[in-house]
Every structure is written in structure tokens, then in C-alpha cells.
Amino acid sequence: MSTNFLQTAGLTARYGDAQALFGIDFHIATGETVAIIGANGAGKSTFLKAITGLVKVAPGALTIDGKPWGGRSPGDIVRQGIALVPEGRRLFPSLTVEENLKMGAYAGRPGPWSLARLYTLFPILEEKRKVPATSLSGGQQQMVAIGRALMSNPRLLLCDEISLGLAPIVIKEIYDALPAIAAEGMSVAVVEQDVMVAQRVSRRLYCFQEGRVSLEGASDGFSREQISQAYFGIQ
Ligand code: ATP
Description:
Elements: E1 4-15, E2 18-29, E3 33-37, H1 44-51, E4 62-64, E5 67-68, H2 74-80, E6 82-85, H3 97-103, H4 115-121, H5 123-127, H6 138-150, E7 156-160, H7 168-175, H8 178-182, E8 187-191, H9 195-201, E9 204-209, E10 212-218, H10 224-232
Parallel strand pairs: 3-8, 3-9, 6-7, 7-8
Antiparallel strand pairs: 1-2, 1-4, 4-5, 9-10
Helix pairs in contact: 3-6
């Protein structure tokens, strides 16, 4: 039986006076791949920000390895083994592909991921390693963003809408890399607006609606109607 790497209980988050999350109960086991789906504004990105310390959460609402997590700085988060592939990728535009990848290793932990390992996962990045990262196609830039996160050797990889704006064949290529990543025992949480993609790549899913979990369970265990209801709140 696997153990939970990370868990939240009644997690709330706010932006000033506006509450964005209303009591999120979530867990992810070591080596598990989980999807978080939901419409625009449902609170998915805010939840990732809460995990990575970018928005404040109440003491005790978040536990890692069963212990309350009170770390605050981005460096703390990375050392604790959590890496985020941010929405929009946010690569360093003046750096080459390889320099971008190496940036991921600075604050990281020892572990199996190295440049050589990444180049096996995404061979195109080795071919393009000396060119500016922003000269790559959108899909290749996404590979750099994932690779940069992997270089910190995380225990939990958080991916925020990595398929946004990419062609279906490129989305498939990127998501096809996930099993090789999770095979190392890494937990992976993907925020995804495309429900079919989310169901295909994950074992379990959470649907968020207006800052709450509206559905949770095995990814292949829901009808289209159940998902629509949970996603949009309509019958
Ligand atoms: P999307 O798919 O559009 O990224 P999301 O599910 O990730 O949506 P969030 O971005 O987490 O949703 O937004 C949740 C709620 O918090 C929304 O009502 C949004 O308007 C609000 N919100 C998000 N960021 C901020 C911010 N920086 N300041 C104030 N309110 C915010």
C-alpha cells in the first residue's frame, strides 16, 4: 500500500477579500498520477500556488509525508521535493535550452535526473541544446519547462496546463513521457482543461468548481454526464 506524499485537509485560500478556495481535501500518493480539471476560474492554479507557497495557507492545512508543511520560500519548496511547470512555461528567454535545463538543478536535490537522462526522454532537446530556448516550437519549449522541473529531482511534479495552445499530436508526445517520469516513483499532478486528456493520463482525478472539489475518484470511473455536472454545474 503506497503512502500519501502530500495531503490537504480543508485548505482555503484568498486574494485579499476574495476567497478562491473553500476547503479542499486532496491527497496524492508516492508514484501516483492525478489530474485536476475544472473550468476557467475554478481555482486550479490557486491550488497549485497554495502547494508551492505562492499563496498563504493555514497552518496544518497542508501536510507532506504526514507532517505539517510550513515552508515558505520557493527554495524551501524545491528542496522539499516539489517542482512546478508553470502555466505559460516562463523559460529564461536569453538562455539556451541547456542553460534553461541547468537552472532547474541549482536549488534541487540529488536524484536520478540529469541532462543525459533528459535527452533520452526528449531527444530533440539534445539536438537543440545550444539554441535560445524561445526559438523552439511551443511543444519543444514545453519539454524544456518539464525538463527544467525534473532537473531538481522532485518527488512531486506539478504541471499547470501544459497542453495549452499545442496541437493534439504534440500534446500526446508530451503526455506520453509521463509514465517514464512516474516510473521513478515520482508523484505527478496535472492541471488540465481537456477532460479526455486528463482522464487518459491519470489514475485519479479531482474536478474543481468555484473553489470546491465537485468530483473525485478513479479517472475512468465517471460518465460524461457526471463530469459535465461537476465541471460546469449543469444537469
Ligand atoms: P484558469 O484555468 O483560468 O487558470 P483556474 O481554475 O486556475 O482558472 P484560478 O486562476 O485559480 O482558477 O482562479 C480562481 C479564482 O481566483 C478566480 O475567481 C480568479 O478570478 C481569482 N484569482 C486568481 N488569481 C487572482 C489574483 N492574483 N488576484 C485576485 N483574484 C485572483
